Amino acid sequence: MEPDPIKLLKVQAKVELDRLEAQATAREVASKAIGKEALLWIFLLVLVGVGASAFLDANALPAVIGLVATATMALIQMVSGIVNEVKKEEKPEITIIKELINRLDQKEPPMRVDVNDGHVTVSKGDDTITTRSV
């Protein structure tokens, strides 16, 4: 008995989809999960606010609406924080340390300082500077 070509194609597609999902980064997985669930939660929070306005008296309503609005904004901020990828800049200390390590590998001619009769001569490689001491 030969396997059904449609079932075989479905299994192959499922295997390929699983392989692609296994290669996804944590940010991509979180974005997909939040994208599936976040809209429902935002809708429910808005529904709670509307329902509260229908059943609560006027004195309690501002507090409930404020809490619902705060929760909704926090959820939206979390979603945008996960979805929007921002590359972090390296700390300046790390950049400086990397530059210093690169400089250690470079060969530079030594510096020499001579002081004779009130004149200071600084030599490094082919460069020489002579000044009078004050």
What would your notes on this structure say?
The chain is an alpha+beta fold. It has a domain at 5-87. The protein is built from 4 helices and 3 strands. It has helices at 5-22, 26-55, 61-83, 92-105; strands spanning 111-116, 119-124, 127-132. Strands 1-2-3 form a 3-stranded antiparallel sheet, with no helix packed on it. Helix 2 packs antiparallel against helix 3. The longest helix has 30 residues, at 26-55. The termini are far apart.
Write the layout of secondary structure elements.
Layout: H1 5-22, H2 26-55, H3 61-83, H4 92-105, E1 111-116, E2 119-124, E3 127-132
Antiparallel strand pairs: 1-2, 2-3
Provide keyphrases for this structure.
single chain, 134 residues, 3 strands, alpha+beta
Largest sheet: 3 strands, antiparallel
Euclidean distance between termini CA atoms: 103 Å
- The low-confidence parts are none
Query: From the helix content, strand content and strand pairing, which structural class follows?
Result: alpha+beta
The ordered string of helix (H) and strand (E) elements is HHHHEEE
Name the strands of the widest sheet in spatial order: 1-2-3
The overall strand count is: 3
Q: Any idea what the radius of gyration is?
A: 34 Å
Give me the number of helical elements. 4
- Percent of residues in helices: 55-70%
Shape: elongated
